[in-house]
Design goal:
Blueprint (H helix, E strand, L loop, with lengths): L1 E5 L3 H12 L3 E5 L3 H8 L10 H10 L3 E4 L2 H5 L4 E4 L15 H13 L4 E5 L7 H12 L5 E5 L9 H6 L4 E4 L3 H16 L4 E4 L1 H32 L3 H9 L20 H14 L5 H24 L8 E5 L14 H11 L3 E5 L4 H7 L3 E3 L3 H5 L4 E4 L11 H7 L4 E4 L6 H6 L3 E3 L9
Parallel strand pairs: 1-2, 1-4, 2-3, 4-5, 5-6, 7-8, 9-10, 9-12, 10-11, 12-13, 13-14
Helix pairs in contact: 1-3, 5-6, 9-11, 9-12, 12-13
The structure holds nicotinamide-adenine-dinucleotide.
């Protein structure tokens, strides 16, 4: 199959590279000329494990190329995927569909033969109808089908997720779209990944319902963690105790500082906007959004409390800034709210992140970025673990205790235990655990 991928970001680049690895002929398009120029030179615009080698292999094999020329990529393609951003619209939380609609019009202008246009971006229900209308308005003669194929990959594990998905959802309105998507995903279907065909609107709803459900699960365990702290119970044992129940499952039950990232915050808001427009209240999702927003701010207060209530003139060292490990993505990371809250209380911030510091510089002011965890901790009054990168899992806690001015470890990901911190002489404050005082 000849595929044009419009938008070469986290989703477009990974999807394009994986499709080419299956043997399809893929051209990735982006408006960002610097991004494309870098990719042509073999430089990845994002950090994603395994991506550079995958891209290089398929470029060398002649199956994957990059361009800013949308018209050339679309001409002759069997399928054109739209994988552009759908950020939150300022003010009302609705998904900003301007990039999707602009891409649809450009595709309409560029179509030269029959093609299936597939929306991979996360878009509110009904967007596929509008994409189809825009293309038909621009190209009334075009033989075009419009399908929805939402993406479920996770940053940090994106290639594995794409190649071994739990399921592939394909929303189609005609046989041609179904046949083309079947052909594109055949290599995965052979691996027994279920290819679930639905209508276009249903596929659009599935994506938002999935993200809202996962955001709910995280928020649920976060509130249970607060209860554990109040009553002297341990949330990790509670998670295990409920997660072993097959009806519940163990995933997304790790209490932490609240969900962030490029999807859950904006997608929950967009779903609420759709619900409001349709006058169908989604009260559970409303609560999830409110609880999670409050939680991110509360994490700053938790650090202040761990430092005995007054942090003016003190230094706090943060480990991990990205919203989760193995990505450089800072979008809506809890670290942003935490840094802001601590600065508002008068603390100086020092921070280290293995991959996210370049992107963090763009969204955080007055932070001293350090070369490693120990440089960040040196002479700080507390160490806060915000993101559970592997390299923070085996820190030399004795060394940390020796270089901190005050022995305070706030572990927002529960990667250490109160006992091991206490052995190093550190005062430990985890999430949903009883504080260990030494
Ligand atoms: N990031 C994730 O983990 C993830 C997972 C599942 C779904 N999604 C969804 O996928 C979509 C893309 O997300 P992302 O994180 O890859 O976004 P991104 O911001 O990383 O990438 C989008 C890219 O599209 C390009 N672009 C915009 N308009 C264009 C046009 N008309 N022609 C060519 N290129 C254009 C931008 O320059 C940018 O490089 C969003 O709807 C998102 O919700 C993201």
């Amino acid at each position: 199959m000849r595929i044009a991928m419009i938008g070469t970001g986290y989703v477009g680049l990974v999807s394009g590279a994986c499709f080419s690895d299956f043997g399809h002929q893929v051209v990735c398009v982006d408006k960002d000329a610097d991004k494309i120029a870098a990719l042509v030179r073999g430089i990845m615009p994002i950090f994603e494990p395994g991506l550079e080698a995958l891209v290089e292999h398929n470029v060398r094999g002649g199956r994957l190329s990059f361009t800013t020329d949308l018209a050339k990529a679309v001409a002759g393609a069997d399928a054109v995927f739209i994988a552009v951003g759908t950020p939150s619209r300022r003010g009302d939380g609705h998904a900003d569909l301007s990039y999707v609609y602009a891409a649809a019009k450009e595709i309409g202008d560029a179509l030269t033969g029959p093609a299936v246009v597939v929306t991979k971006s996360t878009v509110p229900v009904g967007t596929g109808d509008e994409v189809e209308r825009l293309i038909r308005e621009t190209a009334p003669e075009a033989e075009v089908s419009v399908a929805s194929n939402p993406e479920f990959l996770r940053e940090g594990a994106a290639i594995n997720d794409f190649k071994h998905p739990d399921r592939i959802v394909a929303g189609v309105e005609d046989m041609r779209a179904r046949e083309v998507l079947e052909a594109i995903y055949r290599p995965l279907n052979l691996n027994k990944a279920p290819l679930l065909f639905t209508t276009r609107r249903t596929a659009e709803v599935i994506k938002y319902a999935a993200n809202a459900f996962l955001a709910t699960k995280i928020t649920f365990i976060n509130e249970i963690a607060d209860l554990c702290e109040a009553v002297g119970a341990d949330v990790q044992s509670v998670s295990r105790g409920i997660g072993l129940d097959n009806r519940i499952g163990p995933k997304f039950l790790h209490a932490g500082p609240g969900y962030g990232g490029s999807c859950f915050p904006k997608d929950t808001l967009a779903l609420l906007k759709t619900a409001e427009d349709e006058q169908v209240p989604l009260r559970i999702v409303e609560s999830v959004v409110k609880v999670n927003d409050a939680r991110k701010r509360a994490m700053g207060r938790k650090v202040v409390k761990a430092m005995n209530g007054d942090i003016r003139g003190k230094t706090v060292a943060l480990l991990g800034l990205t919203f989760k490990p193995n990505t450089d993505d800072m979008r809506d990371s809890p670290a942003i709210s935490i840094v802001q809250a601590l600065q508002d209380e008068g603390a100086a911030i020092r921070a280290y992140d293995p991959e996210g510091m370049e992107q963090a510089r763009a969204v955080m002011d007055d932070v001293e970025f350090c070369s490693d965890p120990y440089a960040a901790a040196t002479a700080a009054d507390a160490l806060v673990i915000v993101t559970e990168w592997d390299e923070f899992r085996a820190l030399d806690l004795d060394r940390i205790a020796g270089i901190l001015t005050q022995p305070v470890l706030v572990d927002l990901r529960n990667i250490y235990s109160p006992d091991e911190a206490a052995r190093a002489g550190l005062r430990y404050h985890g999430i949903g655990q009883v504080e260990k005082v030494v």
